[in-house]
Amino acid sequence: MKDRSFQIEHRPAAPGTPWQLVLPWVFAACLTLSSTEALVRASDSPGGSDVSAVQGATRQIPRGEGPNSSMGSPQDTQSSGAEESRAATPGPHTYGDAEKVGLNYAGTSPPRNVLLLGFNAGSSYDDSIFGNNQHRTGDVDFLFGPNLSVHRDGRLLRLALSYQPYFRIYRRVSEPNAVDQTLGLDAAYQATSRLSFRARASAFYTTGLFQPGQNGEFVPGLGSPSSLNNTLFTPTTRELTWNSRIDASYQAGAHDSVGLFVGDSRLDFTQQVSSAGNLQNMEERQAGLLYEHRLSPHTTVGTNYLFENIRFGLDSRTLVHSAFVSYAQQLSRSLTLSVFGGPQYSRLHEVVIFPVGPFRFQVPIFQAGWSWALGATLAKRLDKTARQLTAQRQVSNGGGFIGAVVGLSVGASVRRQLLGRWDALWSGGYAKSTSVASEFSASDFQSETAGFGLERALTEKLSFRVGYDFLRQRATGQSALFASFDRDLWSAQLTYRFHQIALGR
After folding, report:
1. Distance (Å, whole) CA 281 – CA 313
2. What is the pLDDT of residues 86-133, one digit of tens each?
3. Computed from CA positions of residues 269, 271, 276, 278, in that sequence, does the dihedral angle turn out positive or negative?
4. Beta strands in 90-131 (DSSP E)
5. Can you list the positions of beta strands (E) in 171-276?
6. Rounded to a whole number, what is the largest CA-CA distance in the chain?
7. SS3 of 320, please?
């Protein structure tokens, strides 16, 4: 196979991109927190704040759940705010609410009514920092940066905010040096006893594959179906990842609820690969209708309709209509099962370019088809052990490589409390994605991930984490030139929470 080269030229992000809206969100959230403090103070619980020990966010793949056990994403290793947002209607919830539930122990709860300031510092060795198997370059990086997390509960308003800038400096190679930033926001408002609204958003402005993650203990983040494809990885470019969703929920009766939602996900590359198989900016807009019926305190059934509009570059658009039936059951005190399935109809419109001598002909292609979506999650949570198994098949976006894909993924993760205040984490996964495209632009992708990590609270404010992560991805067909690579990462990190402020006492 010939070694095909490519060039990367820098271009600034276009005005009006979602990242330019991030800072106003931060300021608005802070102003909301200040202006509503007096109003909601009287409605807080008498016990004040629950300020259990918090570990800062560590590294993860920005928009995925890949190799993250060692530098583990708190979404997978900490108690999340998901359970708190569901407190109004206890019991298992069906597929469609886009909640990313963490791999947390039974009986744990997130800190409430607290502002935390912390600092993270660490180092790692990546054996292929550019993601190029033909010309592998390994190097050691040093990562450091502050973090800010806020959680505020009121009688009508709940607000959670997490912001973390990181400075990453490599020892020998200077090109990948960067300042990465992550932001998470989760706000809920109870308009009446039956009607509630919720807004969630997350943003990553990053370079490279293994990146700092948000503090999932405060902001769980968005999962399927309101997030970008987390099984396709683009390791060598500067990118902005944005996910947002707004929900309106109505409690129609004691056992029935109806919800509407709209969402927007974007992937913007601030570096352009100049070749025939280049990466392209991508946008996915979603809208849906959810219905849930509680059969018993431990069993829920639901139906939902999902519409997706996936745009890839300037010449590719895929419309997807999905109808799902879902079922969730609390099988025992510690075991929960959730399954969903249903048909999906996709319609593709793309423009294929055929070079003929000095001429280039653009030919519009239309393609439609049906497929089936299936998925299941099995979670077991005990006092000192948490396990989770997932499997899913459905149409999704192509992660910047291609417009839309039919993705199949399976994964497993385990967290176990050991002696001496140590926690051990294991994770593994396999994914295969096949393009929803004409034969002229078809591509296939396969990825395998694995990871192991150990973490320990050294003091009440200081924690330590060490681990190893592996990622392997292969691509065939009309895909980006550098979509095939292997990565190994050895890492260590210290997190220090140096200031804690109780709110609403």
Report:
1. 5
2. 444 456 778 888 787 778 888 777 778 889 899 999 999 999 888 777
3. negative
4. 114-126
5. 178-190, 195-207, 211-212, 238-251, 256-269, 271-274
6. 78
7. strand
